Amino acid sequence: MSTFSDVDLGRSPPGVSFPQGYNVAVDLLDRHLAEGRGDRIAYTDDRTTVTYAQLAERANRAGNALRLLGVEAEQRVLMVCLDTVDFPALFLGAIKLGAVPVPVNTLLTASDYVFLARDSRARLLVVSDALLPKLGDAIAAAPGMRVVVASSPAGAPAGTSLGACPRLDELLGDAAPELAAAATSPDDVAFWLYSSGSTGVPKGVLHLHAHPVRTAALYAQAILGIRADDIIFSAAKLFFAYGLGNALTFPLSVGARTVLAAERPTPAMVARIMHEHRPTIFCAVPTLFAALLADKTFQVSPTLRVSTSAGEPLPRHIGEAWRERFGTEILDGIGSTEMLHIFISNRPGDVRYGTTGRPVPGYDVKVVGDDGEPVPDGDEGSLWVRGPTAAMAYWNARERSLATFHGPWTRTGDRYLRNADGTYLYAGRSDDMLKVSGIWVSPFEVESALSAHPAVLEAAVVGHADADELIKPKAYVVLKDATSASAALDAELRAFVKERLAPFKYPRWIEFVRELPKTATGKIQRFRLRG
Fold first, then answer.
1. In the prediction, which pLDDT does 449 show?
2. pTM of the model
3. Could you give all domains of the chain from N- to C-terminal order, each with its CATH number?
4. CA 339 → CA 53, 211, 287, distances in Å?
5. End-to-end Cα distance, the chain
6. SS3 label, residue 235
7. pLDDT tens profile 319-362
8. What are the φ and ψ backbone dihedral angles of 204, each rounded to 5 degrees?
9. What's the average model confidence in pLDDT over 42-68?
10. Partner residues linked to 367 by β-bridges
11. Which run of H or of E encompasses 417?
């Protein structure tokens, strides 16, 4: 049996090596038992607390239950699961079996699940009972797919039309508590993640057994400084790359404790977690940090030592306000589903708010122009990254794979510039950039200027054609107080932006809205606003 000791995390990154036979579930679970940490708490969710020994047994039972249901090596298991202890048990149990878990967004529409069921060709679907009513069409669209229902904290919803489905708790109770790991290698596919869909149809992203512990070594341990005595709470959910690292790979790599919550994150929910569980590391997205700061009653745990932010760049004023109010830092960074986690980041004691920080050791980045050549510092271009966690490919999407993966380099789709001090400054998505009066305009730059106004909670900017069919910026603005919307405030916001940016960048139109369309990671879906 390979153990995590085979992976040398004591060396400076990127010194991570693997034996020929390697199963990442063994490293993240069985190692703690072998090294005497079985009694440490691994997870606390809305219903229960489990130790590392209990989690390892639950994962073994999950793998055996999947086998009894007919799941074989390399077959997909679609997971539409809320954040409970069942998630890591199922995810790691499937990997240990040699199957491929495919966790997906729990906030999608029925038609989205039809697409995912068909595209993944999953052998089995595991769904939290509270979400089951939305999956009827997806189940009908994939008649060969079996269904298992996992319990939600609130219990099963009344009356579904899907008939009786096996219950996960019962299957686990009947399954054997021991499971031999499949004979996988570091380069075998371990799991899929679907891209968040911020620019259209989601893409299945294939990740390998070697990838999770590499992100743990290169970012969580070397940059974040995660320790065994940490308590982690990630408002970002487990079903996407950022949350999966925060709340599964990273804590399990060092034997730390993680708090899970099934409900959507709100200031009230985060306040409850802070009070009851006293996390030391908090992981969220910029939208949530802004909402927490807008709540004048919100307080962080006195034990909180650091927070992380990803999904979209953190505006400077939010980071500075958080540090001033709570005395702790937010480490903003950029990652992607394709790279699995953060590859450029600010660091403790070296935070440059308004920038994404510097490359994480073990990753190389470059900013290139339209000719494919690197641009000088201060010039804007496309961000490319190479590193040891790049996805194998997109599933069933050859053209998209060719457009994104170029040998060792991955084209991120983000536009950046490198400052003279080595930090990187976000300039928007390549497909979101606007050309106004012949000059490129970054929507994020305009959004940041709007968000700095005391009346604005958040904003999104897209291109809109004027009477001459020329593209100009249009802003969708969410106010802290919706009742303050007025023509006078509209004019005030335009003037506010003009004072801070070049005149051609100000929004020609402002539309006040109650909320912005977003993915579950907090990314604004500008393509929906453009429609």
1. 93
2. 0.87
3. 4-206 (3.40.50.980), 434-530 (3.30.300.30)
4. 30, 9, 22
5. 53
6. coil
7. 999 999 999 999 999 999 999 999 999 999 999 999 999 999 99
8. -75, 120
9. 98
10. 383
11. strand 409-418
Q: Cα 427–382–204 angle (5° rounding)? A: 100
For residue 454, what is the DSSP state?
T
Contact 471, 439 (CB under 8 A): no
**Both tokens of residue 266?**
């709100």
Give the tokens for residue 189: 């596919």
| Cα–Cα distances in angstroms (integers) from residue 360 to residues 344, 385, 391, in the given order | 5, 11, 17
User: CB neighbours (10 Å) of residue 196?
Assistant: 23
- Dihedral angle of Cα 356, 357, 361, 363, to the nearest 10 degrees: 30
Helix, strand, coil shares of the chain as percentages rounded to 5?
35, 25, 40
Q: Which of 306, 518, 484, 328 is nearest to 510 (CA)?
A: 484
- Token duo for residue 38: 């079985």
pLDDT at 524: 84
Digit-coded pLDDT (tens) for 76-85: 999 999 999 9
User: Would you tell me how many other CB atoms lie within 10 Å of the CB of residue 36?
Assistant: 8
Residue type at 321? A
